[in-house]
């Protein structure tokens, strides 16, 4: 028998992909499943981006790339950080990664030793937990309930910091809640971090262009004096519908970027040159499509909120960004579904919705906040309407069963 490493033993599969796999299996068996489990835009990659990739391939841009990224993309990303996020950057301040997830992986692996603590506001994307545990770090969750707008409270953050705390992970707009960072929250966080100079921060801003109410704010711009301890990451996956191109980028302290480049060189080396050429076209091309797509996602959010407003057992906060709904399902717990199963937790609810209503969602426990489910609103209006109708019928029959 193969003896696998401790890091493999600490690694758990993501619940989002597990639910998506179950949905695919049911669909393959002939069931009419609607999957709202994966956070992936259903809109196409912009044509001019695809054209740029084609031209790059035909033009011979098919060789090994620099580990940190091509000059063209690092320049485009630097311009983008200043234009969209208010962060002064040069090409030397940018690292290009294989998707946003590798930026998180590189950052965590470059600073976390076994036993180090990483503060993660919950609810949170499951990928943070996976990477921290893979590195041997200890995730420490900061509870950010719906009553607080799913935002970090400065006093709670301060109380969570200890001698082993090495890193804080922020993600706004937030997956799964859709909360955005407001000025009061970032000012409070900055005040706490100034008292703890040993704590670094990753700001995952991958949903920065998907804000429906309020304004985009990020920590390094709100508190420039902390920029030497903050890594800000983004990418083209969500905003430009380029998930399969696997292209992320980040900016931050150059010594941190250098360490991350070493990690990346060891793991994967550079990013596909074709994807990098496509990303240049996305970042330097027409930006009006971002507003057009934000309008689509806002409409879909409102559609889902309106359709689920009358669902007994569900309480849904209003997402301010991203493309998710994260309703509480605690009022469904203890109820019996039409098939006779008793709902004991959020996993039961998500599994019952898939098995009995043929709608795939993800339990909130996967995001370190039990008692909720997450559903993606990045689907067509017709699919969302049908999915919400199925969820509504499920809730009515379950509550009345």
TrEMBL record:
Keywords: Aminotransferase, Pyridoxal phosphate, Transferase. Residues 32-391 form the Aminotransferase class I/classII large domain. It comes from the Bacteria. GO terms for biological process: amino acid metabolic process. Signal peptide: none annotated. Its EC number is 2.6.1.-. The keyword DNA repair does not apply. Its cofactor is pyridoxal 5'-phosphate. PANTHER family: ASPARTATE AMINOTRANSFERASE. Belongs to the class-I pyridoxal-phosphate-dependent aminotransferase family. This is Aminotransferase. The gene is aatA.
